[in-house]
Amino acid sequence: MAQSAGDRRRINGPEESFSPVFDDDEEDIKLKTQRSRAAGDIRPIFLQPGLISQANGSAYIETDKTKIACAVYGPRQTKTTTYSEKGRLNVEVKFTPFSCMRRRAPIRDAEDRSLAVSIHQAIVSSIRLELFPKSTIDVFITIIENDGIEGCIASASVAASTALADAGIEMLGLVSACSAAIVGDDIHLDPSEAEARASSGTVILACMPALDNVTSVWQSGHMTADMALKCMERCHERCIDIHSIVAQSLLEHRTAA
Amino acid sequence: MSSISKSEKAYIQSSLLSDPPLRADGRGLTDFRTVALESGVAPLANGSARVSIGRNAYDGGGGTEVVAAAKLEVETVGDGEGVDGGRVVCSVSCSPTAYPLLSSNALDDLQHDMTSLLHATLSHPTIRPQNLCILPGKKSWLLNLDVIIFSDAGNIFDAIFMAARAALWDTKVPRTRSVQYRAKKSDRKDATQAMDVDEATHTGSALDTRETVQVSDFELPDYWDEGEPLDGRQTWPVCLTLNLLPTSHFLDATLQEEASVPLKLLVLYSFQSDTPPLLRSMRLLGTGVSDLVQVKSLLKDGEKYARIVWTALEGKLKDEDLRRNQKARERFLNR
Amino acid sequence: MSSRIELLNAGLLRSDGRRPYELRTLSINFASQGTADGSVTFSHGLTEVRVAVLGPREAKAGSRRETLHDRATLNVEVQLAPFGVGERRRRGRGDKRLLELAATIKSTFEPVVQVHLYPRSTIDIFIHVLQLDGGLLPACINGSTLALATAGIPLFDFVCAIAGGVHGTQPLLDLTTVEENDIPSIVVGVMPRTGRVTLVQMETRLHMDRFEEVFRAACDAGKVLWSEMRDALRERTSDLVEALEAGPGAFAAKEVEEI
């Protein structure tokens, strides 16, 4: 049946064709997974609160190739008429069309939503939502450049928490997040996209270092429970460092303003 | 999903925390409700299963009910999303009967969240079955796993993964045979035994000295419901939801209990006989907080419970295999 | 493909071994589905549908505007399991064929359900098609009738629907997918007590002289279906009455005895 649909009047090309395979492809990947830093080090973080002037609070974060802007609007009145005793936290994530290796169509797709859900999980328990009945806090995150989904989730959570603090929304503590990947037998913290692809499992941990508690754990791939715990502990150590960066940048922003 | 009042919440929480802990249906903290499993419920799929948790005894209704089915499609590698070696795509859809109070947008979001967890866990490259490949670099099987939630009476994630595991266990991959079209006079030595060689009348060069076997297509030697099970079907994980209270945790929550705990931990383990259990996925869900010490102890407990669930499931699945094969044989004899 | 299969052989047997007027096996299961007020799993041959009825109740937050002040509105949603058809295809909520099917079912039941008794409320009919082998619309309608009845919603009458077709000059009843694809067919929904017809659907071309014959055969088949459906419903109701008289826990006790 399928054959009848083909074009019989012209000479068609072969049914199947293959693009040429280049020799250096494999080498390229190997090159990319090589780290210039130690396994326990994370990429340098640049964090700038208050970059978007019309938002109530905002932050811009850059870790090497990952670039994310985050804006917070609210607390403002919930549009729907239903009464809610606690405030709602609404997280939306957008990728720019040029953020990945392949062009992303600028429509809301499946990945946006799952990222939004994991960022929501990371920051929701830090906000005192019980103080904002009938209102919504909107967090809009734009991923300008993406180098590994794990890193994106972690950085975006940090940016979102910074932006919330910048907006003056009452919180229990600042959230910092870190990711880890298992490459071979080593734990590589803050993996890039190539590293994450080469890994057998990844962990993202979000916590509030000031209160010493965990708000989100996001593990995928496979690893033993001991390894997962080790990853979480390493991430937790880095989270404490990240926390001081967030606190410092917020402080600098306040004194400058 | 159900919304309950503050006093209901406090009532349920305090009875769960009391000593001994009390639950509305009289279970202990680590007891499951009755789990019923039946495989082969969708004859048009390559593998399927229905799981219900806590259904009532007299008419088989009520409780959480989930149906999962796997269907295989042939895909050309490099065409669109086709990957060499095959791939697994999962989706979860909720019947509006399961969540009658949710608007259609909220329902979409919910099924999306469930899909992303299921897909992230089961389609991870590290767990992909080896026999989804038909022709290396050319054709492969695309395994579509569809899960439908018919009703939710709590503990939905455990039910989804149980059903998914049973459906994948039940899945039979059709056997394929490679076929090659060749010029008439060329050397026949390069055709392997397992391969059919169609002689095509061809006017091209008879000086073809290629030594490699160029497989161009495949055919199905037998009818589709006979085939081999997926490779490594023991490794599909089981999910366990630990509902967290400040000092303890409990399993298999009903809807009311789910609504009254702020935080739950999902752990997915896969067990194999020769290797230590592997963590396949872990998620912390809810508005509460935990800490590393608690997560550590929960992982240990979770592994213990997950092994019990896995053992029970494994036994049941083997029974189901036996039951279904026997039935087919009897049907044939009675004819 | 399908034209190669002989739909009706010289001995007047169809591709699945039935006689021209023979119907496929019915199976009706009233097991409860979640929190639904009325529910049924209805299978007709290899076609299987699950129907759940919720209501009459206040409309959901989003659709509250659509309620009417003098009667209840019917809301029908149809979903198709991706593994229920030969070729897997995901149909979303906005799929045109499913919306059309839902609209047909809604208009069939509007004159049958006594909607004037429940002003400002909605009655939801959720249909999930698990497996498809011809006669989708009839199965949905018959299932909905039973589910509405078990939900205790007053109806003027049953609606019993059946598909009919013509092969050559021979009318056939209760078509499978293979037959549906090849021969002209109609769907008739009858109210068996009054003999009135609430639905006739024809999407193919059918000779005028043949129409009446098929139509009459389908109306008669509707009455046969009615007796089956009525018996199932009576059995279910008598079970419930028995349970009511025996008091709470009777079912559990019965269960223990059986074990």
From TrEMBL, chain A:
Annotated spans, Disordered: 1-26
Where is this protein localized, as stated in its record?
A: Cytoplasm; Nucleus
The record's annotation in Gene3D superfamilies points to:
GHMP Kinase, N-terminal domain (3.30.230.70)
* DNA repair as UniProt keyword: no
Q: In which residue ranges is the amino acid composition biased (Basic and acidic residues)?
A: 1-13
Keywords assigned: Cytoplasm, Exosome, Nucleus, Ribonucleoprotein, Ribosomal protein, RNA-binding, rRNA processing
Which family, according to the similarity comment?
A: Belongs to the RNase PH family.
Supply the name of the protein: Ribosomal protein S5 domain 2-like protein
Highest lineage ranks of the organism? Eukaryota, Fungi, Dikarya, Basidiomycota, Agaricomycotina
From TrEMBL, chain B:
Q: What is this protein called?
A: Ribosomal RNA-processing protein 42
* PANTHER family tied to this protein: EXOSOME COMPLEX COMPONENT RRP42 (PTHR11097:SF8), EXOSOME COMPLEX EXONUCLEASE RIBOSOMAL RNA PROCESSING PROTEIN (PTHR11097)
In terms of InterPro entries, this protein maps to: ExoRNase_PH_dom1, ExoRNase_PH_dom2_sf, Exosome_comp_Rrp42_subfam, PNPase/RNase_PH_dom_sf, Ribosomal_Su5_D2-typ_SF
Q: Where is the Exoribonuclease phosphorolytic domain?
A: 31-174
Q: Which GO terms describe its molecular function?
A: mRNA 3'-UTR AU-rich region binding
Name the family.
Belongs to the RNase PH family.
> What domain of life does the native source organism fall in?
Eukaryota
Keywords of this protein's UniProt record, alphabetized?
Cytoplasm, Exosome, Ribonucleoprotein, Ribosomal protein
Q: Which Gene3D superfamilies match?
A: GHMP Kinase, N-terminal domain (3.30.230.70)
Which residue ranges are recorded for the region named Disordered?
184-203
Q: Where in the cell is it found?
A: Cytoplasm; Nucleus, Nucleolus
Its Gene Ontology biological processes? exonucleolytic trimming to generate mature 3'-end of 5.8S rRNA from tricistronic rRNA transcript (SSU-rRNA, 5.8S rRNA, LSU-rRNA); nuclear mRNA surveillance; nuclear polyadenylation-dependent rRNA catabolic process; rRNA catabolic process; TRAMP-dependent tRNA surveillance pathway; U1 snRNA 3'-end processing; U4 snRNA 3'-end processing; U5 snRNA 3'-end processing
Could you confirm whether the keyword Membrane appears in this record?
Answer: no
> What GO terms fall under cellular component here?
cytoplasmic exosome (RNase complex); nuclear exosome (RNase complex); nucleolus; ribosome
From TrEMBL, chain C:
Describe the location of the Exoribonuclease phosphorolytic domain by residue ranges. Answer: 22-154, 157-220
Keywords, A to Z, come to:
Cytoplasm, Exosome, Ribonucleoprotein, Ribosomal protein
- Which InterPro entries is this protein grouped with? ExoRNase_PH_dom1, ExoRNase_PH_dom2, ExoRNase_PH_dom2_sf, PNPase/RNase_PH_dom_sf, Ribosomal_Su5_D2-typ_SF, RNase_PH
The GO molecular function terms of this record are: RNA binding
Q: Which GO terms describe its biological process?
A: nuclear mRNA surveillance; poly(A)-dependent snoRNA 3'-end processing; rRNA catabolic process; U4 snRNA 3'-end processing
Q: Which Pfam families match?
A: RNase_PH, RNase_PH_C
Q: Which domain of life is it from?
A: Eukaryota
Compartments annotated for it: namely: Cytoplasm; Nucleus, Nucleolus
The Gene Ontology CC terms held by the record are:
cytoplasmic exosome (RNase complex); nuclear exosome (RNase complex); nucleolus; ribosome
Query: How is the subunit organization of this protein annotated in UniProt?
Result: Component of the RNA exosome complex. Specifically part of the catalytically inactive RNA exosome core complex (Exo-9) which may associate with the catalytic subunits RRP6 and DIS3 in cytoplasmic- and nuclear-specific RNA exosome complex forms. Exo-9 is formed by a hexameric base ring of RNase PH domain-containing subunits and a cap ring consisting of CSL4, RRP4 and RRP40.
Q: Which family is it part of? A: Belongs to the RNase PH family.
Protein name (database record): Ribosomal RNA-processing protein 41
Protein's organism: Rhizopogon vinicolor AM-OR11-026
